[in-house]
Amino acid sequence: MLFNSSLFIFVFLPITVAVYFALNHKQKRSAAKFWLVLASLFFYGYWNPLYLPLISASILINYGLGLRLRAHSKKAELIFGITLNVALLAYFKYTDFFLENLNHAFNTDIPLPEIILPLAISFFTFQQIAYLVDCYRAKTDEHNFLNYSLFVSFFPQLIAGPIVHHKQMMPQFAQLGQSNAHWDNIAKGLLIFSIGLFKKVFIADHFALWADSGYAQVDQLSSAEAWITSLCYTFQLYFDFSGYSDMAIGAALLFNIKLPMNFNSPYKAVSIQDFWRRWHITLSHFLRDYIYIPLGGNRKREIQTCNNILITFLIGGLWHGAGWTFVIWGALHGLALVIHRTWQGTGVKIPRLAAWALTFLFVNFAWIFFRADSPAQAINLIEKMLIPDIAHPSPSFSVLTNATDLGLYGLAMHLAFFAILAFRGRNSMQILSTQRHFHLGHSVFILVTLLYTYISGLNSHAAPFLYFNF
């Protein structure tokens, strides 16, 4: 079930909210939390009910391991728990990738099982690994199974994050049964949900048409079309993930739950370090706290610190997907952070505008590997971008404009306008923090966005979010 589908917006979400508050109104607080768990598992199982036992078993086993770690704090049990979670993730996500490379390296013909990746396994695996580590470190004091189940399965953040931390969420769930409808939260939740929906259906999905068309025909692109293709994906991903993050925060706020900020205008970043403080913030925190620091962080020699950065981002790249393109993408960001760290040591400062341009250009080129079907396709597109196209001095842009009825002028205006919005506009959290009162303009915006989504959904299927693939 997609956040941008009519089924979710007009059926699942209002029914879930209504039943939850009805149960609370009758003082059935545990039943209200249990209802949210059931609704969240239904939301998860709507894609493929066969994987419901997987997430249910994962919740049960990790909760039991957490109890043991709090009671005994044995390192062997922590290693077992982490290994179990990583092995589960590795089996579903990396088996085909491993066998494919094994066949290629040794000229074997081992059949690929073609395992279907369970939704959200990357997210709830990292989430529960963090929980086990903190149980071992005696940083948790939550013993309620219902609260833990809701912490893992809560549907606004289940499929594509944010990767919530137990200390951020479980105290809220412990008080969840005492909450009643808070109309200010409902109004703010609807507003931010609608902002995210607007980003997805009005902006990201249009960029997707051009990006998909360009990547499907890389060999036919001119140099100018190659640049537009790369930029369209760069902004598709920006507004797609930003839109999802807003919708997750907005949906949670309907239940008086505040999810952590996961997206803070990353294309305004003036360094690669600044970028990772703004992009997928909760993933950055996980990589820092549970991989980089345990490896030694920056407490050892400089060469070891640089190695720790590279290892952390190689893992971050693989977390996103089982493919060499993701490994290369992670390696590029790791190298960029090492270079940034080395440059900082010189004490030489780059002018702010130049630093921003350099950061954005690097991120744009790195996204090419993130999106491409293979390293060869990525390199092909980059070559077209960097080598002047003598064969097409006056490109027709037909490869891209045939993908939509907006035409070349519409494409250019769409790209320019929303690029400026990403570079200079206020993000959703900034807008929400300045809106003290809900007014008529907000209501009109919400209604128009929901109406457009409903009408467009009658003519086509809702497009999935990009991070649903990870």
UniProtKB/TrEMBL annotation:
<keyword id="KW-0808">Transferase</keyword>
<comment type="similarity">
    <text>Belongs to the membrane-bound acyltransferase family.</text>
</comment>
<feature type="transmembrane region" description="Helical">
    <location>
        <begin position="6"/>
        <end position="23"/>
    </location>
</feature>
<keyword id="KW-0812">Transmembrane</keyword>
<feature type="transmembrane region" description="Helical">
    <location>
        <begin position="406"/>
        <end position="423"/>
    </location>
</feature>
<feature type="transmembrane region" description="Helical">
    <location>
        <begin position="78"/>
        <end position="95"/>
    </location>
</feature>
<comment type="pathway">
    <text>Glycan biosynthesis; alginate biosynthesis.</text>
</comment>
<dbReference type="GO" id="GO:0005886">
    <property type="term" value="C:plasma membrane"/>
</dbReference>
<dbReference type="Pfam" id="PF03062">
    <property type="entry name" value="MBOAT"/>
</dbReference>
<feature type="transmembrane region" description="Helical">
    <location>
        <begin position="115"/>
        <end position="133"/>
    </location>
</feature>
<feature type="transmembrane region" description="Helical">
    <location>
        <begin position="145"/>
        <end position="164"/>
    </location>
</feature>
<feature type="transmembrane region" description="Helical">
    <location>
        <begin position="53"/>
        <end position="71"/>
    </location>
</feature>
<keyword id="KW-0012">Acyltransferase</keyword>
<feature type="transmembrane region" description="Helical">
    <location>
        <begin position="444"/>
        <end position="468"/>
    </location>
</feature>
<feature type="transmembrane region" description="Helical">
    <location>
        <begin position="353"/>
        <end position="370"/>
    </location>
</feature>
<keyword id="KW-0997">Cell inner membrane</keyword>
<dbReference type="GO" id="GO:0016746">
    <property type="term" value="F:acyltransferase activity"/>
</dbReference>
<dbReference type="InterPro" id="IPR051085">
    <property type="entry name" value="MB_O-acyltransferase"/>
</dbReference>
<keyword id="KW-1133">Transmembrane helix</keyword>
<keyword id="KW-1003">Cell membrane</keyword>
<dbReference type="InterPro" id="IPR004299">
    <property type="entry name" value="MBOAT_fam"/>
</dbReference>
<dbReference type="InterPro" id="IPR024194">
    <property type="entry name" value="Ac/AlaTfrase_AlgI/DltB"/>
</dbReference>
<keyword id="KW-0016">Alginate biosynthesis</keyword>
<keyword id="KW-0472">Membrane</keyword>
<protein>
    <recommendedName>
        <fullName>Probable alginate O-acetylase</fullName>
        <ecNumber>2.3.1.-</ecNumber>
    </recommendedName>
</protein>
<feature type="transmembrane region" description="Helical">
    <location>
        <begin position="309"/>
        <end position="332"/>
    </location>
</feature>
<dbReference type="GO" id="GO:0042121">
    <property type="term" value="P:alginic acid biosynthetic process"/>
</dbReference>
<dbReference type="InterPro" id="IPR028362">
    <property type="entry name" value="AlgI"/>
</dbReference>
